[in-house]
Amino acid sequence: MPQMIFLNLPVKDLETTKGFFAKLGYSFNPQFSDDRTACLVISDTIFAMLLEESRFKEFTKKEIADAATTTEVILALSAESREKVDELVDTALASGGHPAGETQDLGFMYGRSFQDPDHHNWEVVWMDPSAVEGQS
């Protein structure tokens, strides 16, 4: 069985955040969701647990970073093409996301980024498979 990852992210308004990611084409696993938590399915092995801040605080004694002013993490997703990078980021920005960094175009690698409604940074990156194959 492949290893899975569950990212835990605090959110201010669960319904707003769920609506945002639904517009990006993602689904939620109801088995791991309730009225204060939503399990965002990114792939077969990657999930983001979106937790209302009060619920998130139950898992840590530390203060929750204000992602609007502090970068606590940058989440990077691969895309199958440059067009898919643009499609996902353009949809995110049109659906209530916020601009993040500048577009990076290195020819063999292309990436753009956005912030979700809670200001978590998401990067979407495409890399030419032939550039990866040449690496050892």
Note down, in words, how this protein is organized.
This protein is an alpha+beta fold and 136 residues long. Helices cover 24% and strands 32% of the residues. It contains 4 helices and 9 strands. Strands 5, 6, 7, 8 and 9 form a 5-stranded mixed sheet that branches. Strand 8 (109-115) and strand 9 form a beta hairpin. The model has no long low-confidence stretch (mean pLDDT 94).
Task: Write the SSE topology.
Elements: E1 5-11, H1 14-23, E2 27-28, E3 37-41, E4 46-52, H2 53-56, E5 74-78, H3 82-94, E6 98-99, E7 104-105, E8 109-115, E9 121-127, H4 129-133
Parallel strand pairs: 1-4, 5-9
Antiparallel strand pairs: 2-3, 3-4, 6-8, 7-8, 8-9
Describe, in short, the structure shown.
The protein is 24% helix and 32% strand. With 136 residues, the chain is of the alpha+beta class.
What are the defining features of this structure?
136 residues, alpha+beta, 5-stranded mixed β-sheet, 4-stranded mixed β-sheet, 24% helix, globular
Shape: globular
Spans of at least 5 consecutive residues whose pLDDT stays below 50 are none
Count of separate DSSP helical elements = 4
Strand content: 25-35%
* First-to-last CA distance: 26 Å
Total beta strand runs: 9
- Biggest sheet layout: 5 strands, mixed
Rounded radius of gyration (Å):
16 Å
User: Helix proportion of residues, in percent?
Assistant: 10-25%
